[in-house]
Write a structure and sequence with these properties.
21 strands; Rossmann fold; alpha/beta; disordered N terminus; binds alpha-D-glucopyranose; globular; six-stranded parallel sheet
């Protein structure tokens, strides 16, 4: 390509729209929400000239979504098929409410019959909502319809998880040049399985393709087949997902995509997660001066009713109390860990059978086990900053955020070697003097305890080896703007090139237009 005086290369800006069921701070049950928000914002910061800004993020307007007064920037109505509840037919009117978000445009799909409900986003105490297919079909249709109505249809639809999957069969909308699709799989465990009797909720685009003997439709699987490109949130998990052990029944479909399926490691929002400015902490601190970390530890221990001057190791853990996250492994190892002198601070909620034994320990040993059974943002920050080690024994973990936050807050992670955890934590036991945390190979109580013991030995010895471990962890650059957001921009270009029928080897150089 010619470069020289008087010649510059302009990239044609792409119009990208996200479709997602969660976005922090409006709607969150897990890491999906953090990533949607942080990636959209990071793209806004690094993509000038590459993307049309601000990018659009579509989100259902659930009952709990609160729009601050004065942040509403527009509204529009579209008519889309469906909306009559399970199996409903006919057209329904949907309002799209635009909100100025931090670095992107939030577009709430407002359809009270679908989203203004008691319970969670996906179900209530009795289980999943029976009309989830209809709800998310309507969400996707409304997003596409408003983009179309505005006369500036997107170049790339960026779909997140199964909730956005119905869009893969609606993208045409009678257009000659349908948008390219990048599907990001955050959690391969949730497929949006739609039994045959419910497929009608998705409309004729989906019923027409249903095989005569098919028991139903795996929405995530269909999106994997039909998106131009598919990624998951770490290279490590992208490799694991190709195996029957981790593929959750979708490994064959992922293998069939060849190099159109790959991993892009999630970043971390380093403005949101910064111990030097975190307003919740008892004292701020940085890599250059960690003095404040002692005050954070004392504050955390006092808040949970532990002896704040006891120097013994305190391990924190945060997340959904489910088997994916390995809480049962902690519960099994906990008695031995307590006998070894550990104290545990666990935050999260989940089904009674999993929480039961931890709850019992917390009641019996309130001086050594704290169980915080709620999602408390401020308390989470105090745990990241004040614990001595941070545990993530996940059985599988497409990426994980907690370990990145813990590293940045100078709290070495203790993790199972899986997916994004393996990609982000270097094992100090394997690479003495070069590690950032502690990694165990087998997701068992024995493995977990072994890693905790390795951690404890180093923690208790303290001194320069310990301090250097913290230095290395705090120095890792997970900023979205450094690697991850640029990798997504490249993926958008590649998806467009594929859609345009160009043969695009991996990785594809950006499509550039030369202007005199
Ligand atoms: C899901 C995955 C988690 C990932 C997050 C954001 O919650 O389980 O590993 O970090 O999505 O991509």
């Amino acid at each position: 390509m010619q470069r020289g005086p008087g010649v510059y290369h302009a990239v044609v800006p792409m119009r990208v729209a996200f479709l997602a069921a969660e976005c922090e701070p409006w709607a969150k049950t897990g890491g999906l929400a953090d990533v949607v928000d942080a990636l959209a914002r990071a793209l806004g910061e690094v993509a000038a000239g590459e993307l049309e800004l601000p990018i659009d993020v579509f989100l259902p307007r659930y009952r709990s979504v609160v729009v601050p007064v004065g942040s509403l920037t527009g509204e529009r109505f579209v008519e889309v098929p469906g909306g009559g509840g399970a199996g409903g037919t006919g057209m329904t009117r949907v309002r799209i409410v635009d909100v100025a978000a931090d670095g992107y445009r939030l577009r709430l799909v407002d359809h009270p019959a679908s989203f203004d409900r008691e319970g969670g986003y996906y179900g209530d105490a009795t289980g999943d909502f029976p009309d989830n297919a209809a709800r998310f079909a309507l969400f996707c249709r409304a997003a596409l319809a408003v983009l179309e109505a505005e006369g500036r249809p997107p170049d790339v639809l960026h779909l997140h998880d199964w909730h956005a999957a119905p869009a893969v069969r609606y993208r045409e909308l009678g257009r000659a040049a349908p948008p390219a699709i990048l599907l990001t799989v955050h959690n391969l465990a949730y497929h949006g399985w739609t039994p045959r009797a419910a497929v009608g909720q998705l409309g004729p685009e989906w019923t027409a393709g249903l095989g005569r003997r098919a028991a139903g439709i795996d929405l995530l699987g269909e999106a994997i087949d039909r998106a131009d490109l598919v990624n998951t949130v770490s290279p490590g998990f992208a490799r694991e997902a190709l195996t029957p052990e981790f593929g959750m029944g979708l490994d064959a479909r992922l293998r069939a995509r060849g190099d159109a399926f790959f991993g892009i490691l999630n970043g971390l929002d380093t403005d949101l997660w910064d111990p030097a400015t975190d307003p919740v902490l008892a004292a701020t601190f940085s890599a250059a001066d960690r003095t404040g970390k002692r005050a954070c530890r004392a504050d955390l221990l006092a808040r949970v009713g532990f002896d704040p001057v006891d120097e013994g190791p305190v391990v924190g853990m945060i997340g959904r109390l489910d088997p994916q996250k390995g809480f049962d492994l902690l519960a099994e190892a906990a008695p031995a860990l307590l006998a070894d002198g550990f104290r545990l601070i666990v935050q999260g909620s989940g089904p009674a059978e999993l929480v039961g034994s931890l709850r019992g320990l917390a009641v019996d040993r309130p001086d050594r086990v704290a169980l915080i059974e709620r999602f408390d943002r401020d308390m989470a920050r105090r745990i990241y900053a004040g614990a001595d080690g941070f545990l993530m024994p996940s059985r599988f973990e497409p990426c994980g955020t907690g370990q990145m936050v813990a590293l940045r807050y100078g709290t070495p992670p203790i993790v199972h070697a899986t997916g994004g955890l393996r990609d982000t934590v270097r094992d100090e036991h394997d690479q003495p003097g070069d590690g950032t945390g502690f990694v165990f190979r087998h997701p068992t109580a024995v493995g977990l305890r072994w890693a905790c013991e390795t951690f404890r030995t180093m923690f208790e010895a303290g001194g320069s080896a310990w301090e250097s471990l913290l230095d290395r962890g705090m120095a890792v650059d997970f900023d979205w703007r450094t690697h991850s957001a640029p990798a997504y921009i490249e993926a958008y270009r590649r998806a467009m090139a594929l859609r345009a029928g160009a043969s695009a080897p991996s990785p594809t150089p950006p499509v550039r237009r030369t202007r005199p």
